[in-house]
User: Fold indole-3-glycerol-phosphate synthase from Terrimicrobium sacchariphilum.
Amino acid sequence: MTFLDQILKDAADELSATKSRRPATEIRGMIADAPPVRPLPESLEASFCLIAEIKQRSPSVGPMREQNVAEALDAYEESPIVRGISILTNNLHFGGSIEYLASCRATATKPLLRKDFIMEEYQVREARAFGADAILLMANVLDAARLAGFYDLARELGMQALFEVHTEEEIAMLPADVRLAGINSRKFKSDSGFVGAKGASDKDFSLDYGAFELAAKLPAGALKVAESGLSATNVGSVRGKFHAGLVGTSLLRDPRGIRPCLGEFEDALHA
Assistant:
């Protein structure tokens, strides 16, 4: 069993408990009262920028710095280079929740991406009900039919989808009209490099930066997003190949605080 297999098993258990607590009929009723969608693609178009992430922990390195997490939303709102905010809603492995996304939506002005292991239509509708503007769809979790079907449903609800891929084979699974396509450098299908829900590590051993070389093979009309492993020291290497970088751990673990780290990203992107 790969680490991804274990995560998906745990995520399926979480989803089952959520559906028992909040039935699909309730979710459908909530959608009518959901706040209007803010378009994520349009926010990323002007120049290279960041989608900045909020999570309590990561399976690859463990806990984030609590103060950074607490200050993240305000810091992201203030930063001119952050044009979208990614909210982890998986609980066991990332410490998030869909309720936390809703609390962020109450004050955030920038588009919110629901980042989770979306496996069922229920989660797409749930994202919209709780105020998400976009969802993550992972090609190493879903087959081509479900990728297309969930994309159609997301757009029907007014949202967009960021498609995440790791290989050429996964790129071939993407719908022809994909608007946002991301390459994740994290090797989720490996059985090593992860500390799990209870561990901690100073270094992230689950990355393969060579995956970013696949950028040229992404659909020509898509806005391209580099995901995982980015810091102020290496973000320049993906600028030009991608339209945005999805950044979380380097911001949320910086011992100096999240604002000094964001300042370094700003300096790097203005150099």
